[in-house]
Amino acid sequence: RYVNEIVETIPDSEFDEFRHHRGATSYHPKMMLKIILYAYTQSVFSGRRIEKLLHDSIRMMWLAQDQ
């Protein structure tokens, strides 16, 4: 929950340069930052383990907002 509160304090305008509106739809950079920061707080650094957490952890699912 703390990760969500901290990231939500960052204005959306800070993420504008990371958003691209061409090609396939992408994930919002703010949501990706939440996922990575939460994984790091759980001592998970591997992309595959982060993906596994997204499928198994209710907290990660909540942060990802079913995206």
From TrEMBL:
Domain Transposase InsH N-terminal: start-end pairs: 5-65
InterPro entries named in the record: Transposase_InsH_N
Record's protein name: IS5/IS1182 family transposase
UniProt lineage: Bacteria, Bacillati, Bacillota, Bacilli, Bacillales
